[in-house]
Amino acid sequence: MKNTVIYGIAAVLPKAINVALVKLHTSNLSNEQFSNNTHFYVWIAYLNVLLAYGMETTFFRYFNKEKEKRKVVSTSFLSIFSTSIIALLALLLFKTEIANFIGFSKPIYFELLVWISILDALVVIPFAYLRVTNRPIRYTLIRILNITVFAFFNLLFLWYIPLALKKGYFLPEFVSSNFNFHFKEGYIFIANLIASVVTFFVLLPVIFKFKITFDKRIIKDMLGYSWPILIAGLAYITNENLDKLVIKDVMGDYEMGAYAAAYKIGVIMSLFIYAFKLGAEPFFFNYASKDNAKEAYAIIMKWFTIAGSLLMLFVMLYIDIIAPLLLGSSSFFELLHIVPIILVALLLFGIYNNLSIWYKLTDKTKYGMYFSVFGALITVAFLYLLVPKIGSIGAAWATLAAYGSMTVISYIFSRKHYLIPYNIKDIFFYLIFSVILFLIYDYYISDNLWIATAFFLFYLIVLFLKEKKELQKILKR
């Protein structure tokens, strides 16, 4: 339990700090610059998945499976090291052509992307090694160091240096004469590179402990295990990020910047889902042998949906307060109407994550890949069908269609392979009830905090009256 909490901090805190940095970014960047920033991190996400090619999860599997654990460690690291060096040389050799092809406004941005991605790939196995050898404190401290360095240089480049230049505060001559106000998004990427360099050097002592041996049999087995994870990872990134690329291509940078900023509000739901997953997954596996395991999973799913619907309704009703807290310039407020759709989509994705326990417990993880690919195909089809016709809101509907379809198909398959008595009636009730309350408020009232609060309290009252007996049982345990 203690280790779960420590790893939870390492996972959630960086995401929370990144959410906090959205305010800094949207206060200092134009829509077009924020679009460039989003575009950069979409490709970072794709490249990170490609360069790791599922080896982190595979490493955990084979470290516990093989007797010669040192060979697993060194073989895994040497594999990623070799492919990373080859990728580095190839990407830098054709950097101009690739940068132009994928739409980078400045070639230097692509170079920064390559170096960040390579450094991030090289620390995949060292980080995994710290986890598998049960060193949660060291792992967490390095993760916190990474995000702290990134946040510090963001504040330095986007807040302190511009303020110092404006107010006449002391700055080194090199900084004051070379600072470029038109390169602000580029400074975010430089901050990321500095954080990645620091992390790599801090992990060098771990890397130097690896014995230099390469086992052909082990790597052959590992690659056979890892490729479905790679495919699933690419499908997941497509579901998460292709919408931004399509909007940039079809609607332009200004629209993409506004869309990406509005989408960031949905990260509130993502943080809830991620935190829940960190706590729930260990319980799911540890509780699997219990006689009442399936009943417990059904109860957890119901209360996850209740909590998620409650959070969703809260964000929807108080969006006019929450948006200014997360977003800076008013130009990023133009597409806030996509937020409810994104919140519903992300909640469905959270339900899908809970459903995934059926194929994890039955060792049928290939279905996770199938469902992710299916969702990616839905994403691609809906994006290219809807965005040219109805604009950015079409991308939000594509996200909802993808996650909704993945949830439905996973539930259908779970009925056959691992039947859990989910209370579908209650799950639908709380999900739909929260959406209906918001639609009534948004269509007939809107912009009235007192009535918004009344709607939220009404949900809580209905929840209490409907679940009074079950709440009493839970509190007595």
Structure in a nutshell:
Helices cover 85% and strands 0% of the residues. With 477 residues, it is mostly helical.
Report on this structure.
The structure is a single chain. By secondary structure, the chain is mainly alpha-helical. The protein is 85% helix and 0% strand. The chain has 2 domains: 2-214, no CATH class; 228-476, no CATH class. It has helices at 2-28, 31-52, 55-65, 69-93, 95-101, 107-122, 124-132, 136-167, 173-178, 184-202, 204-208, 216-251, 253-265, 267-286, 293-317, 319-326, 339-355, 357-361, 366-390, 392-417, 424-445, 449-476. It is globular.
What helical percentage do the residues reach? over 70%
Work out the strand percent.
under 5%
**Main β-sheet: number of strands, strand sense, barrel status?**
none
Please indicate the count of domains.
2
List the helices and strands and how they pair.
Blueprint: H1 2-28, H2 31-52, H3 55-65, H4 69-93, H5 95-101, H6 107-122, H7 124-132, H8 136-167, H9 173-178, H10 184-202, H11 204-208, H12 216-251, H13 253-265, H14 267-286, H15 293-317, H16 319-326, H17 339-355, H18 357-361, H19 366-390, H20 392-417, H21 424-445, H22 449-476
What distinguishing features does this structure have?
22 helices, 477 residues
